[in-house]
Amino acid sequence: MKAGSLYFHFGSKDELICEVLQEGVMRTLKAVSDAVDAQGPEATARQRLCTAIDSHIAALRGHANYGAAVIRIVEEISPAVRDRFMSRNKAYTDYWNGLIRQAQREACLAPGIEPRIIRRILFGAMNSFDIRNMSAEMEAEARKALFLLLGLD
Asked: Does the predicted TM-score (pTM) go above 0.85?
């Protein structure tokens, strides 16, 4: 496929960008929710949240091109594309808000802090894992630090 021919499948460059972003989020949501669901109904909120964090980071590694695209360009896209992407991204953010609320109810995370704030901080931390340039040892150390900061160690 020639580079320019890709644009014939989309109405505009913005549509192409939005599709790439959405595909990255949907792949990550599936990977995370499948891993959390595999924990079974007996899993604690702590186990579910830890699994979700690990799965999100692993999904970034496994779907590196999509994950990197989302992380790298989501803040640089046009406001119209960002608005479309954010409305489509709602399923993933709602999923995480639910995990965080459950962890707060079970006293795994501090109650009284708006789950959206915790999620944004958590996403910032998870998405800062430079998966293409991070050794396995460094990734393990970063994961340990993240869990320690959240009180999930």
From this structure: no
